[in-house]
Design goal:
With about 375 residues, the protein is α+β, with helices and mostly antiparallel strands. It contains six helices and 21 strands.
Length: about 375
């Protein structure tokens, strides 16, 4: 258990040295609804609390990429977007834009290898946190993103980011658009590798292609119950529902979560529309909630425990961004269409909250 006497020291170290989160367990999914609308969602898990806010970025807002050598790519937002920022850095790490393009950052430890910055590529260089913001504010479709990456229009450099530790945070990225197209973008061996993601599922390390290969170990799983059998005159009936899924991995490792997320998202009965699809998304992602204490790591006599800080969902058709936090399970929503997309400033709101408890005693009859 965590030694409570060490908590003040842990808080001080986290604030002063920006301890890099050791554990991470983010899970992403995509659902296609009966009306052909697309909704996507993901969880955010880390071993320490992240100071996060919901933000709306208007069109024509100026950004400058941060790199180890200083200023990198300079660009202005072509499209407005809504999503989540961290540590007051006005770069969206997760969100969707006015064209229905959605992007998410996921931790990619021990595998992420960024491009070495040079004077020749500095003008197109971005930090790991700048990159998703650039995608959201510059592109309307997955096809456009793919072409830009293939044309080498941007590089991600190993840039230290405030709040993320003393080294460049290891990230990889998932991109969706409102047609249901999806790609995974991963920094491997100093280059950005793009792969089609027809399932829309994403977790953490290893690389995306490994996870897709690993799914072949689970093709015997079935949503239908296994029928009863008779052996030597003895009849064996199922003990309960769900025996077709016997062998489904239940731990919190990225490979196991990738398998479960694939099964849950592809087997779910399609919702009627985006509104119902959002509810379906949260129900599915509830299966990936990590409570404090069940995933721990010891480092220098300090215990870090991975837990689900945030769960988000994105309505790519109606441009609505939904979220709930560990401390407040109320689903909250921000409508991008509600804002002046040509405003001059970025609007923000902390994701912190406290779960309301509704006393229904007086309603009983």
């Amino acid at each position: 258990m965590i030694n409570k006497k060490r908590l003040p020291l842990l808080t001080f170290i986290a604030a002063f040295l920006f301890i890099q989160p050791i554990a991470n367990a983010c899970t992403g999914i995509m659902l296609k609804n009966k009306d052909n609308s697309i909704v996507t969602g993901r969880t955010v898990e880390f071993g320490i609390t992240i100071d996060s806010s919901v933000a709306v970025v208007p069109r024509n807002y100026s950004f400058v990429g941060q790199t180890p050598m200083g200023k990198g790519m300079q660009y202005s937002s072509k499209y407005a977007a809504v999503g989540v920022i961290a540590y007051k850095d006005l770069n969206l790490l997760d969100g969707l834009n006015e064209k229905g393009l959605a992007v998410g950052v996921f931790y990619f430890p021990t595998f992420a290898q960024y491009t070495t910055e040079t004077t020749q590529n500095q003008n197109k260089a971005l930090s790991p946190g700048d990159f998703p913001n650039w995608l959201l504010t510059q592109f309307a479709t997955v096809a456009e993103v793919r072409r830009a990456i293939e044309k080498d229009q941007a590089v991600i450099t190993p840039t230290i980011m405030p709040g993320w530790g003393n080294e460049a945070p290891p990230f990889h990225y998932i991109v969706y658009d409102k047609t249901g197209a999806s790609i995974a973008i991963e920094p491997l061996d100093g280059k950005l590798v793009v792969r089609n993601n027809p399932l829309g599922v994403f977790t953490n390390s290893p690389s995306f292609d490994w996870h897709m290969t690993n799914l072949r170990n689970y093709i015997s799983l079935n949503t239908h119950n296994v029928p009863e059998i008779t052996l030597n005159g003895v009849n064996f009936k199922e003990l309960g529902q769900g025996n077709g899924m016997l062998g489904l991995p239940g731990d919190f490792t990225p490979p196991s979560r990738f398998v479960r997320a694939t099964i849950f998202s592809t087997a779910a009965t399609p919702a009627k529309n985006a509104d119902e699809g959002i509810q379906q998304t949260f129900h599915i992602l509830n299966n990936f909630d990590i409570p404090v204490g069940v995933a721990r790591e010891e480092s220098n006599d300090v215990t870090q425990t991975d837990y689900t800080l945030l769960t988000m969902a994105r309505d790519l058709e109606n441009l609505r961004y939904y979220y709930k936090s560990y401390d407040d399970q109320t689903i909250r929503m921000v409508q991008l269409k509600h804002f002046d997309l040509n405003a001059k400033t970025i609007k923000t709101l902390s994701t912190k909250g406290k779960q309301p408890v509704v006393d229904m005693s007086d309603q009983l009859q």
